[in-house]
Every structure is written in C-alpha cells, then in structure tokens.
Amino acid sequence: MHDGFNSLSDIIDQNPGLSGLRKALKQSEVVNSFYEIFPEFQKIVTAVKVEKKTMYLSAESSAWKSELKFKDQLIIEKINNHFHEERVKWIRFV
To answer: Which of 17, 52, 55, 60 is the most buried (most CB within 10 A)?
Structure first.
C-alpha cells in the first residue's frame, strides 16, 4: 500500500522524463505573470511568449518599442528576480 500521495507539482518537478513539460510551464508562467511584475505596461506591451529564454513582447508603438529596448536589461533582471532563477536572457519585440 502507498504511504501517501504526491502532489502534481511534486511529480512534475521530480520526474526526469517530464523536463520538457517543466520547461513549458515555466515559460508560460513568465508570460502569465508579466502584468503582475509590470502593471505599468498593461496598456502598452503584450507578452507574447518565452522560447529558449527569449521573451517576445509586442509594443503598442515603435516609440514604446524603442523606449523599452533601452530598459531591456532592467526588465530581464526584474523577471528573473521575481522567479528567483534565470528564466529570461533576451527580449525581442515583434
């Protein structure tokens, strides 16, 4: 008889065969938490996706895109600090 139950998150975190799923969940978590981290960007930026540690953002205008390019390292640092690990290395605008 099994002594206890494992939570789904424990199973995903511990099973080596689920590394792809872990990676996909972490990437989607960055996109889903983007406005929690940056509430001031809600009207000007859309988080599109994270792929291979590159975050893809869509800016409302080319002016905002240029402004945010100057702040990309600060954005990356704030995201990684929020998750206490490196989840994003680069930012690209689409």
So the answer is: 55
Record the pTM: 0.78
What are the CA-CA distances from residue 50 to residues 4, 5, 13, 29, 86 (Å)?
35, 32, 20, 9, 12
Single-letter residue type at 79: I
Topology, domain 8-93: GMP Synthetase; Chain A, domain 3 (3.30.300)
**Cα separations in angstroms, 11 against 1, 15, 83:** 18, 6, 20
Strand residue runs (E) in the chain: 45-51, 54-59, 90-93
Q: What would the pLDDT profile of 67-81 be if each residue is shown by its tens digit? A: 899 999 999 999 999
